[in-house]
Specification:
The structure holds two protein chains of two kinds. Chain A has 19 helices and two strands. By secondary structure, chain A is an all-alpha fold. Chain A has a two-stranded antiparallel sheet. In chain A, 59% of the residues are buried. Chain B is mainly α. In chain B, a hairpin with a 2-residue loop joins β1 and β2. Chain B is globular, with a radius of gyration of 21 Å. Classes of the chains: A mainly alpha, B mainly alpha.
C-alpha cells in the first residue's frame, strides 16, 4: 500500500511543500487554459496572472517569516511504500539557502513569464509556442524540488527531470541549430545524471542511507566515498557547464528561444551548482586536506579567465552572454575551497557569498538576456557591431544592460559587488589571498566584455530612430530585474539573514 | 531619524532625484531639464550651507545603516567632508549653467545631464562617506557615471579615450578594493575619525598597515593622476568642455586627492602615518609628479592638453601638502583642494569658450584673442596668474602655506620643488597670456567663428559662469581672512586634525 506519513502534525511545513505543489498545479492549469483558449480567450491571461500572484505571495510570506524569526529549518519526510520493493523516503529540507533559491526562482520565473506575455496567441510577435507555459511551470516545480531536496534520491529525480525539461524547452525552437544544440545538451545531461546515479549508488552501498544529513555525520575519506563523491561532482559539473565540461552550453543558450535562455542561464545552471554545494557541505570536510578543494577552485579560476576571454572574442550578442555565464559560474566554484577553511563564522560568510552570487548572477543574467532579445528585435540582427546608435534611441534598454553589467562586473553598488565582497572577505579571513586575486582580476575581465557592448551602443548611428522597439512591458520587466541587482547591492541584510550553515548560528 | 541624519541623505538625493527625473524626461524638454538642474543645484547648495554652519557649531550630521553583515553604510558631515562638499556643490551650479549653454542644439542631452547629476551625486557621496567602504562605493560609482560623459560624443577618439580611462580607473578601483578588504579583514569596519583610528590598533599589525597604505594610495593615485598612473587624463580631453572642467576641478582627480586626505588624516592619522615613515615616499611621488607633469605641459601645443598636464601637476600639490607633517602644510593641502578647483574650472571654461566661439583648439591660434573676447581672456589671465601663485590671488595663499609648511616640516627640498614648479607654471602659462593680449590677430582669421550673442563676446551661458569663477579666484585670495573662506575653513579642519 502507499501512504504519506510525514510530520503531518506540524502544519507549518505545508507552505514549504506548496513551493513544489503550486507550480505543479499551475502546469496542469496552464495545459487546461491552453486547450480552452479558443473558447474562453480571457481565461488565459487572468489564470496565469492569478497563479503568478499566488506563487509570489507564498514565497514572500516565507521570506518575511524567515527574516523576522530566523529560518525555521524543517525536515519533511514523505514515505512511499509500494506493494513490492523497498520503502522510499523523500526528504525535504527547508533552510535558508533553499528559501533564497526559491525566492530567486519566483522572481525570475515571474519576470520571464510576464516578459513572454501572458497571452501567447494574442501577441503580434509570439515569442514562444503555447507549450512553453506548462513546461516553464514544470521547470519551476522541479527547481523547487531541487532546492528543498535533502536526500540523494530526491536530488537525482530533480536533476534528471530538470535536464529533460530543459532539453525539451531548448528544442521548442524549431531551427536546425536549436535541435542540434538540444541533442548535444541531451547527451550531456543524460551522461551527467548517469554519473550522479552511479555515484549515489556507490554511497548508498557503502553507508546504507540516502539522506544527506545522515551521510554528513558518517562520512569518512575512503575509496568508495571518494569515487561516489567524485562521480557525483563530475556529473553535476557537466550539467552546470563547469570548465572544461562547458562545450555544450554556448550553442544551447544562443539557439534557444529567448525565455528559455533566460530560465536556463539564470536558474537551470544554478540548480546543478546548488546540488554540488549541498554535497560539498556534506562530504567536502572529509576531503579538506586533499587536492580536491584546490582543484575545484582552480577550475573555477580557469573558467573565469577562459569564459571571459571567449566572451570577448564573440561577434554575436547571445554567444557573448553565454560565455559570460561560463565565466560567472567560475566565481561560484572559487567559493568552494573557501568553504572548507576557517571557523564557522567565516564559512557562513563564504556560503552567503556563494548564494548571493547565485542571486546576483541570476537576476543580472536574466535581465541581460532579455535586453539581448530586445536589441536583436530592435536591430534585426544578433551581431554586436549592429548595436551602433542604440544608445541614443533605446535608452532604457541600454540602462538595463548597464545596470546588469555593473552587477556582473562586481562593481558597487550592486548585488554582484556584495557577493564579491563576501567571497573576498572569506578568502582574506582564511589567508588564501590567491582567490582574492582571482576575484579581483575576474571583475576586470568581465568589465572588458560588458564594456565592449556599451561602447558599441555609444557609437553614434543613424540620426533617425530606425529601430523596432520592444513593448513597454518587455522593457520594464528587464529593467526591474536589473534594478533589483542594484537594490540588493544596497540592502543585503534581508536576504543574507536567511542563511545559516547547517548547525551554525544565525547570520549577525 | 532626526533631521540631522536626514541632511546628508537629502544632499545626495538632491542630485540623485534630479538624475532619475532627467533620465525619464523626453529629449526635447530642454527648459524643464534646465530648470530641474538648477533647482537641484540650488537646493544642494542651501543644504550644504546649513550643514557647514552646523559643523562649525560642532554639530554632527550622520546617517547609517548596516548594508552587509559587519559593514555599515555611513554618511557623515565633518569638517573635511564639508570642505569637499562645499566645493562640489558650488562648482556644480556653475558647471550646470555652463553646460546648458555649451550643449545647446546637440543630441543626447537627457543622457548627458542624467549622468552629469549622477556624477555629482557620487562626488557628494565621496565627500560625505563616513568609512572606507562607503567611500569605495561612491568612488566606483563615480568611475561608472563619468564614463558615459567622457565618451559622450560617440566618436572613435572619444571611445578610445573612454576605454583608456576605464582601464586605468577600474584597475585602480580593483587595487583599492583589495586594500580595503585587507584592512577590513584585520580591523573590521572602522569609521573615519579626526586624528585617525589605526594608531590604537595592536602593534603587531603595524607592519601590515604600512603595506595596506601603499595599496590604498596606489588605488587612489590613479584617479589623482599621479605619475606614472596619469595616462588617462590627457586623453580624456576629448570630452565636452564642461565635463573636462568637472573632471579636472571637482570630480575625478579631486576624488583621488580627497581619498588620500581621508586615508592619511582620518584613517591612519597624520602623526601615526608620520611615525610609520609613510609620508616621505608620498611626498617624493608628489614631487616627481609636479615636476614631470609641468615639463610635459610645456611641450603641449593644444590648449586643453596643456591644461590637462597642468592639472596633473597641480593636484599633486595637494598630495605634497598632505605629506608635510605639521598643521601649516595641512592647511596648504586643504586650501589648494578648493583653490585649484576654482582656478582650473575657470581655465577650462575659457578653453571651452575659445573653442565654441572661435573654433580655437591650438595655442598658436590664440594670438590676439584678447581683443575679440576680453572678458574670457581676463578670466583666463586671472586663472593663469593664480596657478603661477601671484599675490593676491587664491594660488598665492596655497603656495604660501605649502612653502611655510615645507620649511616647518624640515623638508626644504619640497620648497625647491614649489619654486621650480612655479617657474615652470610661468613658463607654460605666460606665453599664452602674452599671445592673448600682445600678439596681433592672425591674418587668416579665426579657425571657425560663431556669432553666439549680439551683445557679448559669446553666449551668456558660457560667459557669466566663467566670469563668476574667475572672481572667486580673487575673492578667495583677498578675502582669505574672512570667516567661511576656504582658508579659515582649512584652518578649522587642520586644528581638529591635529587635535589642537
Amino acid at each position: 500500500m502507499t501512504g504519506v506519513s510525514a510530520a503531518l502534525h506540524t502544519p507549518y511545513i505545508w507552505p514549504h511543500v506548496w513551493l513544489i505543489l503550486l507550480p505543479l498545479l499551475a502546469a496542469l492549469v496552464s495545459t487546461g487554459l491552453n486547450r480552452s483558449r479558443t473558447h474562453f480567450p480571457a481565461l488565459l491571461p487572468w489564470g496565469q496572472g492569478l497563479l503568478l500572484l499566488c506563487w509570489n505571495a507564498l514565497t514572500l510570506w516565507l521570506w518575511l517569516g524567515g527574516v523576522e524569526g530566523g529560518v525555521n529549518e524543517t525536515t519533511t519526510r514523505i514515505t512511499f511504500a509500494p506493494l513490492v520493493g523497498p520503502t522510499l523516503v523523500w526528504t525535504l529540507l527547508t533552510d535558508g539557502p533553499a528559501l533564497i533559491m526559491a525566492l530567486l526562482t519566483t522572481w525570475i520565473g515571474t519576470a520571464t513569464l510576464v516578459h513572454t506575455g501572458l497571452r501567447p496567441d494574442a501577441a503580434s510577435r509570439p515569442s514562444a509556442p503555447a507549450a512553453f507555459w506548462p513546461l516553464a511551470w514544470l521547470l519551476m516545480a522541479t527547481l523547487n524540488l531541487i532546492w528543498l531536496g535533502a536526500d540523494l534520491l530526491t536530488l537525482y529525480i530533480g536533476v534528471e527531470a530538470l535536464g529533460l525539461l530543459a532539453v525539451a524547452m531548448i528544442g521548442l525552437n524549431n531551427t536546425p541549430g536549436a535541435v542540434d544544440a538540444a541533442l548535444r545538451y541531451l547527451f550531456a545531461t543524460l551522461l551527467g545524471s548517469l554519473a550522479y546515479l552511479v555515484g549515489a549508488g556507490l554511497l548508498f552501498g557503502h553507508y546504507g542511507t540516502l539522506e544527506l544529513a545522515t551521510l554528513a555525520g558518517q562520512v569518512s575519506a575512503n575509496g568508495a566515498t571518494a569515487a561516489g563523491f567524485g562521480l557525483m561532482l563530475a556529473g553535476l559539473a557537466l550539467k552546470a557547464a563547469v570548465f572544461p565540461l562547458h562545450g555544450w552550453l554556448p550553442a544551447a543558450h544562443a539557439s534557444a528561444l529567448l525565455p528559455v535562455s533566460v530560465l536556463h542561464a539564470a536558474l537551470v545552471i544554478k540548480a546543478s551548482v546548488f546540488v554540488m554545494l549541498r554535497h560539498w557541505l556534506a562530504f567536502g570536510p572529509a576531503f579538506a586536506d586533499t587536492a580536491l578543494p584546490l582543484l575545484v577552485g582552480a577550475l573555477g579560476a580557469v573558467a573565469i579567465l577562459w569564459g571571459s576571454i571567449m566572451a570577448l572574442q564573440q561577434t554575436r550578442l547571445k554567444l557573448l552572454i553565454a560565455w559570460s555565464t561560463i565565466a560567472q559560474t567560475g566565481y561560484l566554484l572559487v567559493g568552494f575551497p573557501l568553504l572548507l577553511q576557517g571557523d564557522a563564522a567565516l564559512q557562513q560568510l563564504v556560503l552567503q557569498g556563494i548564494l548571493y552570487q547565485m542571486v546576483a548572477h541570476g537576476l543580472a543574467k536574466a535581465a541581460l538576456f532579455m535586453t539581448a532579445g530586445h536589441l536583436v528585435t530592435a536591430t534585426g540582427s544578433d551581431r554586436i557591431d549592429q548595436l551602433t546608435g542604440t544608445g541614443r534611441h533605446l535608452p532604457l534598454t541600454l540602462l538595463t544592460l548597464g545596470l546588469a553589467g555593473v552587477s556582473l562586473m562586481g562593481m558597487p553598488p550592486s548585488a554582484g559587488f556584495v557577493a564579491k565582497w563576501l567571497l573576498a572577505s572569506g578568502a582574506i579571513g582564511s589567508g588564501q589571498v590567491i582567490w582574492l586575486v582571482v576575484l579581483l582580476a575576474g571583475g576586470l575581465l568581465s568589465a572588458t566584455y560588458i564594456l565592449r557592448l556599451l561602447r558599441q551602443a555609444f557609437r553614434e548611428g543613424p540620426e533617425q530612430d530606425v529601430f523596432q522597439h520592444p513593448s513597454r512591458v518587455e522593457k520594464m520587466t528587464a529593467f526591474l530585474l536589473a534594478l533589483m541587482t542594484l537594490l540588493l547591492g544596497l540592502m543585503a541584510i534581508p536576504l543574507l539573514s536567511l542563511i545559516t550553515l547547517p548547525g551554525g548560528g544565525i547570520a549577525p | 531619524m532626526s533631521w540631522t541624519s536626514w541632511m546628508p541623505v537629502l544632499v545626495l538625493l538632491s542630485s540623485l532625484v534630479t538624475a532619475l527625473v532627467i533620465f525619464c524626461l523626453p529629449e526635447n524638454r530642454h527648459i524643464t531639464r534646465g530648470l530641474l538642474n538648477l533647482v537641484g543645484a540650488v537646493i544642494k547648495i542651501l543644504l550644504v550651507g546649513v550643514m557647514v554652519i552646523g559643523v562649525e557649531e560642532g554639530m554632527t550630521f550622520e546617517a547609517r545603516y548596516t548594508l552587509l553583515p559587519g559593514v555599515d553604510f555611513v554618511l557623515r558631515a565633518d569638517g573635511m567632508a564639508m570642505f569637499f562638499a562645499g566645493l562640489s556643490s558650488v562648482l556644480w551650479l556653475f558647471t550646470t549653467l555652463y553646460a546648458i549653454g555649451y550643449l545647446e542644439n546637440s543630441p543626447n542631452r537627457s543622457r548627458f545631464f542624467g549622468f552629469f547629476s549622477l556624477c555629482v551625486t557620487s562626488t557628494m557621496g565621496i565627500a560625505l562617506a563616513g568609512n572606507l567602504f562607503t567611500f569605495l562605493l561612491f568612488y566606483e560609482l563615480l568611475t561608472l557615471s563619468t564614463w558615459p560623459l567622457v565618451v559622450h560624443r560617440g566618436t572613435e577618439k572619444a571611445l578610445a579615450a573612454g576605454r583608456t580611462y576605464l582601464m586605468y580607473t577600474l584597475t585602480g578601483g580593483a587595487v583599492l578594493l583589495g586594500g580595503v578588504l585587507w584592512l577590513h579583514g584585520l580591523v573590521g569596519d572602522v569609521d573615519f575619525r579626526e586624528g585617525g583610528v589605526l594608531r590604537d590598533m595592536p602593534l603587531a599589525l603595524h607592519g601590515q598597515f604600512s603595506l595596506i597604505f601603499a595599496v590604498l594610495i596606489v588605488g587612489l593615485a590613479v584617479k589623482a593622476a599621479m605619475v606614472p598612473l596619469h595616462g588617462w587624463l590627457p586623453l580624456a580631453m576629448v570630452a565636452p568642455a564642461p565635463v573636462s572642467a568637472l573632471l579636472h576641478a571637482v570630480a575625478v582627480v579631486k576624488a583621488g586627492a580627497f581619498g588620500i586626505i581621508r586615508v592619511v588624516y582620518d584613517l591612519y592619522g597624520i602623526e601615526f602615518a608620520a611615525s610609520l615613515n609613510l609620508l616621505w615616499p608620498l611626498g617624493m611621488m608628489a614631487a616627481i609628479t609636479i615636476l614631470y607633469a609641468s615639463m610635459r605641459a610645456l611641450a603641449q601645443s593644444e590648449l586643453k592638453k596643456r591644461l590637462a598636464y597642468s592639472t596633473i601637476s597641480q593636484v599633486s600639490y595637494i598630495v605634497l601638502g598632505i605629506s608635510l607633517f605639521g598643521p601649516i602644510g595641512t592647511i596648504g593641502a586643504l586650501v589648494h583642494l578648493l583653490h585649484q578647483g576654482f582656478m582650473k574650472i575657470t581655465l577650462f571654461f575659457c578653453a571651452g569658450n575659445y573653442a565654441e566661439t572661435l573654433g580655437i583648439h591650438d595655442i598658436k591660434d590664440l594670438d590676439g584673442a584678447g581683443k575679440r573676447m576680453p572678458l574670457t581672456s581676463a578670466a583666463f589671465t586671472l586663472g593663469a596668474f593664480g596657478m603661477i601663485g601671484a599675490p593676491p590671488l587664491a594660488g598665492f595663499i596655497s603656495k604660501w602655506f605649502l612653502g611655510v609648511g615645507a620649511v616647518n616640516a624640515g623638508m626644504t627640498w619640497a620648497l625647491w620643488v614649489l619654486v621650480a614648479s612655479s617657474l615652470l607654471n610661468a613658463a607654460y602659462f605666460l606665453p599664452i597670456v602674452h599671445r592673448l593680449w600682445f600678439r596681433p590677430r592672425r591674418a587668416e582669421g579665426w579657425p571657425k567663428e560663431q556669432q553666439l550673442s549680439q551683445r557679448f563676446e559669446t553666449s551668456g551661458w558660457l560667459l557669466w559662469p566663467t566670469v563668476a569663477t574667475a572672481l572667486t579666484i580673487i575673492g578667495a585670495g583677498v578675502l582669505a581672512g574672512m570667516p567661511f573662506s576656504p582658508l579659515s575653513w582649512a584652518q578649522l579642519v587642520a586644528a581638529r586634525e591635529y587635535l589642537l
